[in-house]
Design goal:
Radius of gyration: 23 Å
Distance between the termini: 50 Å
Order of helices and strands: HHHHHHHHHHHHHHH
Mean pLDDT: 81
Structural class: mainly alpha
Shape: elongated
Number of strands: 0
Number of helices: 15
Helix content: 55-70%
Strand content: under 5%
Low-confidence stretches: 2-18, 21-37, 47-52
Length: about 270
């Protein structure tokens, strides 16, 4: 056995030992008296009582706010990175989901570490699992917008624009609790232009204008330069002029949408 395997074995034993009290709460019936007086025990027994429960079923049981001490939040925050490093992502996701019962400040959780780990996965299974769980947790809805922003930024940082576009599509669904706002649209358009995904940038720009959001000057300039790089000089000038009218408070939203529809429809990648 090599050094790496021995180290992983030691760390795995230590992590399992630390998780044992949580696992007892995680998989024990919530009526056991010995756990009833502990807020952190109520937290886990409420939302993570079974790994086989659907997010919607678990969320239905989450009807009571739970107070956690700063020390308990610190324990959770320190445990999340260890779960990520030991490839226990489903448990880390359930832990974050359950933590929102306590309405914690987002900075008190190790969300950036979790997001970085999720966006390093070869597929989006766990990223979508996190979004789905939080969507069905009424105590976590306030976190969805910043978490989707972190996911998009991390995917772009890892040069995975297709995955960033899938997060945008999830946000744009009719049942989404966090429809994209101007900041998210701008982040996506900038990211797609930087990565050479101009068609996706135009699709997001179209969604932005369709929602009566006027692109800022820097975003308009980014799209203009990206079109010039593709030798679409005429379209670049026409779209820039139309966007300037919208940006100046005009009523040109419909004109921009028609123009973008025409550009997207005739696009040849």
């Amino acid at each position: 056995m090599g050094c790496r395997e021995r180290c992983l074995g030691v760390n795995g034993i230590a992590l399992r030992a630390e998780m044992m009290p949580l696992r007892r709460v995680l998989f024990s019936p919530p009526t056991i008296p010995s756990f009833s007086s502990s807020p952190i025990s109520l937290l886990f027994s409420t939302l993570s009582s079974s790994s086989s429960d659907s997010p919607a079923a678990e969320a239905a049981a989450a009807t009571k706010h739970i107070d956690l001490t700063p020390e308990e939040l610190t324990r959770i925050s320190l445990l999340i990175p260890r779960l990520c490093s030991s490839d226990q992502l489903p448990t880390a996701i359930r832990l974050v989901d359950a933590s929102f019962l306590a309405n914690p400040p987002l900075e008190s959780l190790s969300l950036r570490i979790l997001i970085d780990r999720l966006t390093s996965e070869p597929d989006m299974t766990q990223s979508m699992a996190l979004l789905t769980r939080l969507k069905h947790n009424k105590f976590a809805l306030y976190s969805l917008r910043p978490i989707t922003t972190l996911l998009i930024s991390s995917y772009f940082k890892k040069r995975r624009p297709k995955e960033a576009f899938k997060v945008f599509n999830w946000m744009s669904r009719p049942d989404s609790p966090c429809a994209p706002q101007a900041a998210a649209h701008a982040l996506l358009v900038h990211g797609f232009c930087r990565n050479g995904f101009l068609l996706e940038a135009l699709k997001v720009l179209r969604a932005m204008v369709a929602a009566d959001m006027a692109p800022a000057a820097d975003l308009r300039s980014r799209v203009y330069r990206a079109l010039l790089r593709e030798a679409r000089i005429g379209e670049a000038k026409e779209l820039d002029a139309a966007l300037r009218c919208v940006g100046d408070g005009g009523d040109g939203f419909g004109k921009v949408i028609d123009l973008l529809d025409r550009m997207i429809g005739s696009w040849v990648e």
